[in-house]
Each structure stands twice: as C-alpha cells, then as structure tokens.
Amino acid sequence: MRFHSSILTPNPQKREPVIQILDAALDAVDPYRAVRNALHVRNGVLHVGEGQYVLAEYERIFVLGAGKAAAPMTQAIETLLGERITDGLVVTKTDHGGPTRFVQLVEASHPVPDEAGVEAGRKILKLAQNAGERDLVITLISGGGSALLVAPAVGLTLDDLQVMTDALLACGATINEMNCLRKHCSAIKGGQLAAAASPATLLTLVLSDVVGNPLDVIASGPTVPDETTWREAWAIIEKYGLVEQLPLPILGRIQAGLHGKVADTPKPGADIFTHSQTTIVADNRIAAQAAQQKARALGFNTLLLTTYLQGESKEVAKVAVSLTREVQASGQPVAAPACIILGGETTVRLGEAPGQGGRNQELALAAALDMQGMADVIVVALATDGTDGPTDSAGGLVDGDTVRRGQQNGLRAADFLARHDAYPFLEDINDLLVTGPTQTNVNDLLLIFVL
Fold first, then answer.
1. Whole domain around residue 89: which residue ranges?
2. Handedness of CA 117, 119, 120, 122 (dihedral sign)
C-alpha cells in the first residue's frame, strides 16, 4: 500500500477498497512503466508511436528533461539505450531523485523556483545548443517542469520569477494562465529549448499533468510551438489585478513584447520544429480508467464522468456531494454501490495569511462539511504526485462522520476551511492522505463513493 496506514483507522472495512483503487490508479501511470511501454528498440531502431529512429545514423544522443517524474523516466531511457547516451541532464523536485548511470540528475525547488533550477536550466540550454544536425535529443517532460526548468529571460532575475510565481499561486490563476506568463518571462520555455537544439532531431516524451493535454502548457512546453501571445500574458495580469504585485522588470518585458520590441516565443509552423516528435506516454485518463477498472473488479458500479474537471475547490466539492445525494435518492447516474470518478485540477483563491493545505485537502474538507451526518458516503481528492500544494500530503479522504470526529477533538471544520487550513484538521482525525513522493504527476483524481 502506498498510503500511510493511518488513513484506514476511522473505518478499515470501508476504506480498504478505496485505497486499493487509488493504488491501482497510481500504478497505471508509473513513469518508468509508461516510457517502457511507449518505446521499443528492435534491430537498432528506436520505435516511438509512428516514429522510427535508426540509432546508427546519430553521432550523439543527449537526454534532457524536467519534472517530478524525471528520475524514473530517465531510468527507463537508460535501460533502453544504455551507453549509446552521450550526455544529459534532467532536473526534478527535491526528494524526487533516484540513481542514474549516464544522465546527470539534479534536484531543485517546486513550486517556487530556486537557484538550483536556474543552474540546471543554464546547463540544459548549453547541452541543447551543443547538439548538431546528426544528433538526437531526447527530452523528458513531466508535471512540475515549469518551476524546475528555469532560465530567466534577458533583464529578469530569479527573484523576479519567484515573486511572480507566488502571486500567480495566490490569485487562483489556472495552470494555463500561469504558464503563459512563465513562457514569456523565460529563455527556455515556450519552444525555446527546441530552438536551442535545432537542427538536431528532437524527440519529446511527455507525462501530462494538464487538463486536456495541451502540449504547450505541460511544463510550459519547452520543445513545442507556443500558442500564447504577449497580449494574452498582459490580459492575465489585468484579470487578476497583478500590476501592483509583479516586479517592474516583468511588467516592462510584457509591455515591450506588446509593442513589438521583444520577439515572441516560437509559433506553429516554425522551421525549428521540422525534425521534432512529441509523444504523451501517460495522462490523467489512464489513471482514471485504471481506477474504474479496479473499482469494477471490487464490485462497484462505476462511472468515469470526466477528465476535464476544473473550478474552485469548494465549489467542486458541492458538486461532488450533490452526486452522492442523487445516487442515494434515485440510483442515478449510477446505482450504489457506486464509484464515480472525475479527473482534472481545481484551484484555490487564497486570502491573506492562509493556513496549511492544498487544493485537494480543501476540496475534501469542504465536501465533509456539506455531507456531515450522511451515511455510507466517501469522497476522495488525490494529487497524483503525492504533494498537494506546499505540503507533504496527497489530499484527503472524508466521509459523513469527518466533521463529527473533528468536533470530538475540539476542532471546528468550518473555521479551518475559512482560513484554508485543511491539513491540520484532516491530520488530526486520520483523514489526511499521505503517500510521500509518487514520482508521477497526472493531475488530480476525485472519487465519489456511495456504499
């Protein structure tokens, strides 16, 4: 079992099947397995989807990458190619590393970038620029890459990017909006790593953590064309009222871009993408389908409702609880024992001095408040990377008794939710999901059970 055993304490008989389902979902998107399933070497030819790469035709092979799944993805590539790898560097989140033989692996901060990420970005750019026409560059991209792969654009500093990241996290911007700004403040994101590697052949393997799998958003799309513009970047700043919060150099750069004084990121059709292939090796749907398959095997009537879930965590919680009520009242959209599965990623708009928690913990606690006193219902909100927000929790598992158990310990759930402080409440009553780093990242899963 990946999950800390304390999660079973309140009701082992009912919670054990739930944990089995979550384990199955995470196993299905194991990065090592995903890469090995997507790539095959036969008779000296690397096969990736419809792409074929005759290895003898390449003088050198470089492996570059960034994300929370970088270590196992790299290990899979090393297993396949071994000593054919000339050089490489990948960057992952602190405590997400692992042993590698031919590719250097470094750790850096997430979600707010640090100097280690800047140094990794500088070295990765240099390796890419060193690649020539007869070289193959394999890039491994996974969730978290936006914060980990850092190369401030000319005129910007790491401090500028840190302030911008904090502001975007606090205002409730979507990952698409955050990465639009990141790309336009970077020398490596938004297709610029592909520009550095050109004219080498470029193969990118992606473990997606973004709803709908938009390639230019995942890890801020360092090797694919960027669909966003300077105008969109400025519109995001205005939408969230960030003019007074962002550093002047960032505001100045976006304004300069608007007036044509700074070139935009590489766009679709650019020559640098002529010899480039991108393949998604795992995503949220694969995890959700694995959960559905396991739930069905355990006797649940299942429904995979969507993998495009978005919205404010507390509002999504109301929808989740409304589904439990409908199942109990009418047997719709699926009869009990029911397991309804949703995938995607919610957001939280933080106030001043927020407490400890993450979007999944907040969703779980909000659901617990709405369904207090209900019998035979469970709601689970899981961050598949094992780190929900800036915490060591993967989310929460709550039921109709969660609020009462908190009250017995002198805790008022509504007060904790109001200050975005779900972590200590859920921890105190053993409703906190804890896995440690899973080394994968395919968005979040929301599972609704009516027993």
1. 31-151+186-228+265-282
2. positive
